[in-house]
Write a structure and sequence with these properties.
This protein has 361 residues and is mostly helical. The chain has 13 helices and two strands; from the N terminus they run ααααααβααααααβα. Helix 2 packs antiparallel against helix 9. About 7% of the residues have low confidence.
């Protein structure tokens, strides 16, 4: 009986640790959206910001990767390095670069909201490449397909319909004219920013599909991520050689810029990533994905308080629609995993969505 009591206490303790870790992760990632916006507001170069962030992330991950995966790390081949380089192009360079450009035109809240569509886009791409099977004769298959279309509809609403301001610290009468030329052009910039953010989600989803095949051959995930950060830095440096010729852009002009980079590189990637890998390992990818909307709500609260962000009707409607689509995909995936569990006798949390939906934003 004593052993049973100890086992129950350990199970409760682990569940509490999982849930508290996921809540902390969402706040950490929400903080990343805010500090990135702050860095851009200060005039920091998007390319320089990404380069410094990935250098710090690489240095943070390197000791964990070296010591924790010493025994399970397979030997490196040229073929693997080429695949790492390709993954970095989608998971680091395309993912982070498009995100920062899109964020520059929009806001942290709606950048986070659109990211809720990534599981649905990943399912769509995985279906196209025949990694996932579409079973329209099953409820879970219909739910995943429907959720994908709902997410696309939500992203379209955010992109194409801005609507009136429904909340903001500087709310003006509904029919008042724009006060500046910049605001008059804001709708066009908003649409452009949303298109960049959708491209960011496509790049992220493509990375998820690509890396799902690589981790089977190279299961040392932290080492894999460290290599990607390294190649991401190389790729960003190549881009910077063309588009960022100003030597002054590489200097920190305020403590705020430095703190933003340190937070983005060390906290939001170097520390958060190993925690997320642990949560995926212990709780499964569906458990982790369920918490994603918490991040969006956290970003909305932080952005309103710290940045004075205004909320538009189109963005709110689109965000709610995307979250509904996300939960349809999650429900469908969870039902599918339950069927696998009953057929194979394997716990559902051990069947990951595309093997490892680790976040690198």
């Amino acid at each position: 009986m004593a052993n049973d009591g100890g086992g129950i206490r350990m199970l409760v303790s682990e569940k509490f640790g999982l849930h508290s870790s996921m809540v902390a992760l969402q706040f950490a990632y929400a903080g990343f959206h805010i500090v990135s916006r702050v860095a851009l507001n200060m005039g920091m170069s998007k390319i320089v910001y990404a380069i410094y962030r990935n250098i710090l992330a690489m240095l943070s991950l390197l000791p964990f990767a070296y010591f924790l995966e010493k025994k399970e790390r397979p030997p490196i081949t040229w073929n693997l390095l080429l695949q790492f380089f390709l993954c970095a192009m989608f998971g680091i360079t395309g993912n982070q670069g498009l995100y920062l450009v899109g964020l520059g035109y929009t806001s942290p809240t709606f950048a986070s909201a659109i990211q809720n569509s990534v599981p649905a886009i990943t399912f769509l791409l995985a279906s196209i490449f025949r990694i996932e099977k579409v079973r329209l004769d099953k409820k879970h298959g219909i739910a995943k397909v429907a959720g994908t279309f709902v997410c696309v509809a939500g992203a379209s609403v955010i992109t194409l319909y801005k609507g009136p301001i429904i909340y903001g610290p500087n709310l003006r009468p509904p029919n008042s004219p724009p006060t500046t030329l910049t605001e008059a052009d804001y709708s066009k910039n908003w649409t452009l920013g949303c298109l960049f953010l959708i491209a960011h989600c496509l790049s992220w989803a493509t990375w998820l599909v690509l890396q799902s095949t690589i981790v089977k051959k190279y299961p040392a995930r932290l080492s894999f991520t460290t290599y990607q950060c390294f190649f991401g830095v190389i790729q960003f440096l190549a881009i910077a050689a063309v588009v960022e010729r100003d030597a002054g852009a590489w200097r920190f002009h305020s403590a705020g810029e430095l703190y933003s980079v340190v937070y983005a590189g060390v906290v939001a990637l170097g520390i958060a990533l190993p925690v997320q890998v642990w949560c995926i390992d212990r709780g499964g990818p569906v458990f982790v994905a369920v918490y994603q909307p918490v991040q969006t709500v956290s970003v909305a609260v932080m952005a309103s308080i710290l940045l004075g962000e205004q909320f538009y009707l189109g963005g709110i409607i689109g965000a709610v629609v995307i979250i509904v689509g996300l939960y349809l995909v999650i429900w469908g995936k969870n039902e599918e995993m339950k069927q696998w569990s009953s057929l194979d006798g394997v716990s559902s949390v051990d069947e990951p969505l595309l093997d490892d939906p680790t976040e690198i934003t």
